[in-house]
Amino acid sequence: MSYALTTYVIDLEVARSAIGSRDEKLRRMIGGRFKRQLAADDEYFSHEIERGASTRYEALRAVIDGGPYDERYAFQYAYAYQLVCEFHGRPCFNNDFSPFRDDWLQTVDAGLAELGIKAVAVTEFSYGSLPPGLPRPEDLPDYGEWSAEECREALTQWTATTPEQRAVLDAEVLRAIESCSRWWRDAVAAGRGVAGFMS
């Protein structure tokens, strides 16, 4: 089975503040901007919707209203929160993480550790928790965050590495870490963090 990691440079507090905000204008703006995506998502998950899952827009409404949630279909609320993050954030380049198989995130983490980059781990996107107020899916998508401070520290650790250290790494692992370094650089420049969804 293959997975995809989608990350966003984002003000994490702004995204979290949407949960339970009852901001109808925000809900309408997200619904309008992602209208086609919502329809495609509903078609993809049509079997679950037929069994009682909310549509993606209904899930978005629940996230912004703070419920009610049907925890049997918690994945819909996680994907709805991803729409909130996409609305408020800026997607990162992720070709090195989409698609990927099995232990790729652990492999990249090992490369980070070898370089002495300990501020963050990409596996945080595969076992982190959604923000408070949202039910956690039993399966995908998974969610995680790097704070603005963690991104700043990771970038500092990355810039302290030498070409010789980097040359020892597997080329694919190094490319993935270089992608992460762009995420850190963009986050630091914006004074923001990174939110990631693994699906």
TrEMBL record:
It comes from the Bacteria. It comes from Marinactinospora rubrisoli. This is DUF7691 domain-containing protein. The lineage of its organism: Bacteria, Bacillati, Actinomycetota, Actinomycetes, Streptosporangiales. Residues 1-199 form the DUF7691 domain. Pfam families: DUF7691.
